[in-house]
Amino acid sequence: MIQFDNVVKTFGNRHAVDQVTFRVDEPQMVGVIGRSGAGKSTLLRMINRLTPATSGQILFEGTDILSLNGSAKRRWQRDCAMVFQQFNLVPRLDVVTNVMLGRLNAQSTLKSMFNIFSAEDVRNALAALDRLGIAQEATKRAEELSGGQQQRVAIARALMQDPHLVLADEPIASLDPMNAKIVMDALREIHERDNKVVICNLHTLDTARNYCDRVIGMRDGKIVFDGAPELLTTDVAREIYGADENFNEAATSTAIESPDLSVRRKDPAGAMTPVAVAAV
Ligand SMILES: Nc1ncnc2c1ncn2[C@@H]1O[C@H](COP(=O)(O)OP(=O)(O)OP(=O)(O)O)[C@@H](O)[C@H]1O
């Protein structure tokens, strides 16, 4: 599916992402963790070409996405939907229009300029909002919604893109624990029901452990851990976060109540397996 080969991103003489190589070969929910400045956002932003890579290759199903230009690049950006920490909605527009903006790259420039959407777009947007449990807010302005509701609108907008993969850059960093759980549950549901790759930057270890099939740990731009959440011991976490023996996991906790993934996480063959034996 997606493959990184020796990807580097430098800002001046600083390596934000340093020789990163990994591949995701099946629809997985991948959590990327690491302390602030480790390179998580830069990694994600290179996938959808918001940040240009300095060198290396990113392949999606064999296509070198770093060399895409013009309409091919726009099509790719539609195919990998991005969810941001700050939601990136248009505050004064109503919710349903915000969701339909996910279709923009799929329509003509003229239609895009005037926000002209078809009846089918409206139906699909309402269905996406319904799936996220907020269809009743469709006619409100985005700015009238709580943070958690706005993030669900942003996820509905991502769904409108019918993406190949969903990239979420610290989607719960601005949310309280209850809304964080709703948003993480929604991302997990998209992964499971639609069989999508979801790559999610997370600040907190417990969220990565609870929701992800695979965790990538970054430190100083490099991948220092790549494995199943069960392998993410305190010692490994210490290495990722660069903390000494006084490292306290609670400092990276959001206290989200754990979902019961024991009956949900899939093995590579698609069969359900308990968390303890789930493979990367
Ligand atoms: N546009 C930029 N210009 C210069 N330096 C940048 C830019 N974007 C990121 N960096 C630097 O690259 C490094 C990695 O940043 P990045 O935002 O990817 O880290 P992060 O792990 O996502 O951090 P956080 O969790 O705080 O968002 C940092 O040292 C950062 O200062």
UniProtKB/TrEMBL annotation:
Keywords: ATP-binding, Cell membrane, Membrane, Nucleotide-binding, Translocase, Transport
Record flagged with keyword Acyltransferase: no
One Gene Ontology molecular-function label: ATP hydrolysis activity
Segments traversing the membrane: none
InterPro entries per UniProt: AAA+_ATPase, ABC_transporter-like_ATP-bd, ABC_transporter-like_CS, ABC_transpr_PhnC, MetN_ABC_transporter-like, P-loop_NTPase
One GO cellular component term noted in the UniProt record for this chain: membrane
Residue stretches making up the ABC transporter domain: 2-245
Coiled coil feature spans: none
Family listed: Belongs to the ABC transporter superfamily.
NCBIfam families the record matches: ABC_phnC (TIGR02315)
Official protein name in the record: Phosphonate ABC transporter ATP-binding protein
Organism: Roseibium limicola
